[in-house]
Specification:
Elements lengths: L5 H4 L13 H16 L3 H16 L4 H10 L4 E6 L4 E7 L16 H15 L3 E7 L8 E7 L1
Antiparallel strand pairs: 1-2, 2-4, 3-4
Helix pairs in contact: 3-5
The protein binds zinc ion.
The site of zinc ion (ZN) has 8 residues, from loops.
Length: 149
């Protein structure tokens, strides 16, 4: 199977419809489609997918990470550094869960992975991201704890 680069995906020719798609379509694919195909393994798979994407995108520093997340409309990130190994990333307007009602489970694994991947390219260390808050567990933002090791 061929592997495609981000550059190859950038050539979008849609004179009438343009580059944007409804967020609802993304959520149908992401929350209904992928979960129904992958079931219980969808979380880990989406995290790995996000991590690969984050690594491909790359970031030079935390400001660049913030900019990339916002440009791709994944969300609006607020980053708090705890110490050399730990950071908290609050994600407002999360692409996946923003506005979601309470379900008792968190499922922003792709976003979590994207943040971890971007962090790895900045700090040249391995990064693990764990989601700790979400609209779906009663907050009005998403939150991730990042561990660099
Ligand atoms: Zn979220």
């Amino acid at each position: 199977m061929k592997e495609y680069s981000i550059e190859e995906l950038k050539n979008i020719v849609r004179p009438k419809l343009g580059e944007n798609v409804p967020l609802l379509l993304f959520r149908i694919l992401r929350i209904i489609g992928i979960r129904s195909l992958l079931g219980e393994t969808s979380g880990a798979t989406l995290y790995m997918m996000g991590k690969n994407v984050g690594t491909m995108l790359g970031a030079v520093d935390l400001e660049d990470l913030r900019k990339k997340i916002e440009e791709l409309k994944v969300g609006i990130a607020e980053i708090e550094t705890i110490d050399e190994e730990r950071m908290i990333v609050k994600l407002y307007e999360c692409i996946t869960c923003s506005g979601f009602g309470y379900t008792g489970e968190m499922f922003c694994d792709m976003e979590s992975g994207i943040i971890a991947g971007l962090m790895e390219t900045i700090f040249k260390k391995r990064a693990k991201s764990t989601q700790t808050k979400s609209w779906s567990v009663g907050y009005n933002y998403c939150e991730f704890e990042i561990l660099l090791y």
